[in-house]
Input
Amino acid sequence: MAVRALNLPAHLVATAGVYVLIIFIFSSSCIIETTDALNLSPIESLFLRSRLQTIGSAVSNKFRTEVGPSLLGVRDGADACKELDVTIIFPGAGGRDILSDELEDALRRGCHSAGIENKAVATFDWKEHRGTVLTAAYDSETVGETVAKELWDKQSNSKGVAIRSVHCVGISVGAFAANGMATEICRLRGSTGGGGGTSSDGNAYPYVRLTLLDPFTS
Output
């Protein structure tokens, strides 16, 4: 028996093709877990997940080997301070420059002048992960969230390291990183079994402060 070909209108074929593509993208993204804390749509997850995971791994390694030890390492052990105030500066896409260095120096000098010893200040240069204008917000936010998790793990797993406050400072597109870090610290602080504590006035800590300087938004 001969099979008759279906002569469907072109617009119906095109519409069916779009629906098939949407179903494929959605189902593919459901199979792949989305990046932990980023609220990615199925399509964003499909196209960005691999890139953001790579950035997260690189940032974790940098924090553990460079930034973390210089920020908290000297305070590990029996003589470590009980309550530490941490400030992390995220420069813009161009990386640290004379202005970000001046800001870091000013924060250090201000603490020294005020007699504050339990203050740790560091700049996290993330320019190698800046990507393009289209991915800048996602790249930067991933950097901040990863730094937050590493800092939290450092506090949770190290004796004598108790972080009283975290000040996240973002410059230009680094604002996404600072906001991502502040948001993630708040999320971890509110989760059960977290490494935070309660101050004498009953408030949960670490306290979180967010400062955005000339923020780049999308």
